[in-house]
Amino acid sequence: MGIMTLKQLPTTSRVIISPVQTKSDWRVFINLPWLLYKGDPNWVPPLKSDMRDTVNPKKNPLMKLGPYQYFIAWLHGKPVGRIGTGIDEKLNREKKKKEGYITLFESIDDYRVAESLFDCALQWLKERGIRSVTGPQSPSNGDDYRGLLVKGFDSMPVLLNSYNPPYYEGFFDRYGFKKDFDRLAFYYDLSKPVTERFEQSMDLLKKRYNFSVRNLDLKNLDQELVGIQKLLVRSWPEEWPDMVPPGMEEIKDEVNKLLPIADKDFLVVAVDPQGQHVGLAIALPDYNQILKRLNGRLFPIGFIKFLWYKKKITGARSLILMVDPDYHKKGVSGALYFHMFKNALQKGYTYGEGSTIHEFNTKMVNDAVRAGGDLYKIYRIYRKDF
């Protein structure tokens, strides 16, 4: 692994935690992974401009939902760790909780650093009347950096998914965090052909239950988003402990972030005869294949690389699948996936990832396995009460 080790630092140094306040602090916070993961072949550098947007309260929907604070850990004058913490007041109202979150945790292989960061984050939450904490959660209330990687360290993550060294799991366990639940990622080998029988069955189900599948109409996006927001409210599982249906402002924030990297052939909806949305599936090209080559910078020459390698992407990540409860077990999810599968094959894609699926969502887990998915990565959400 390319993680910085204690051999580079005196063992007698005291860990110091400082809040992120200035532009200089934010640069240290954002740049820290480049120090920690230097030489790690599976780490994918994020675009620094994207990370700046992620921690910008004007552009981050989660920061609009409650107070937050970010911290940096220092050892012998060097930055060696970081963490973000905050309170999603909308989630707490709707779930009747007093819960906080942690996000964007990083640390050298030294438990003292992790312990100091956890102590500081939890103390900040306690001072605000919070009784429990979960994480790592997405810093933007999206699907990025959600969960700690606990299985699947031997390959690069796909777009928006987390990556971390194996020893992080030991830090969380030692501090007293307990597993809340796991989020699962399934790998699909697109070279395996879909049977003609499966294709015929999808056509029969669409006729029997009177729905159709099409690409999202980007020319009438505002109207589409109204239908999608209503679908999310109807179909959002109540048992999801860390997520609630997004409001229209949150949806627009997320759409504005994803549209520049989206492919219209992977933005798919199912509609009934009246045009009402009854299903939604979203996949994104695996831009991590490109980000790996850019080292965090799109300019001045990174953009040229981006345009060149964009045509050479060979995989995608399916990250959203929602179906109206009235259309469960009627083939909607299969029809959505099949539509995207055909589009992916036409582009020459060789793999796909379906992620991340809550482990307790047994229906979707079973669907993933039946569709030929291989469970190859696991992302854990931890919890600690205090």
Verbal overview:
This protein is of the alpha+beta class and 386 residues long. It folds into two domains: 6-181, Aminopeptidase; 188-380, Aminopeptidase. It has twelve helices and 13 strands. Helix 6 crosses helix 11 (332-346) and helix 9 runs antiparallel to helix 10.
Strand and helix map with partners:
Elements: E1 16-19, H1 23-36, H2 48-54, E2 68-75, E3 78-86, H3 89-95, E4 99-107, H4 111-126, E5 132-135, E6 148-151, H5 167-175, E7 178-189, H6 196-208, E8 212-215, H7 221-235, H8 248-258, E9 267-271, E10 277-285, H9 288-294, H10 302-310, E11 315-323, H11 332-346, E12 351-358, H12 362-370, E13 374-385
Parallel strand pairs: 4-5, 11-12
Antiparallel strand pairs: 1-2, 2-3, 3-4, 5-13, 6-13, 7-12, 7-13, 8-9, 9-10, 10-11
Helix pairs in contact: 6-11, 9-10
Helix count from the secondary structure assignment: 12
Classification by helices and strands: alpha+beta
Amount of helix:
25-40%
Beta strands, count? 13
CATH topology descriptor of the largest domain: Aminopeptidase
Please name the defining characteristics of this protein.
386 residues; alpha+beta; Aminopeptidase; 2 domains; 13-stranded mixed β-sheet; 12 helices; 13 strands
Concise synopsis of the structure shown:
By secondary structure, this protein is α+β, with helices and mostly antiparallel strands. It has helices at residues 23-36, 48-54, 89-95, 111-126, 167-175, 196-208, 221-235, 248-258, 288-294, 302-310, 332-346, 362-370; strands at 16-19, 68-75, 78-86, 99-107, 132-135, 148-151, 178-189, 212-215, 267-271, 277-285, 315-323, 351-358, 374-385.
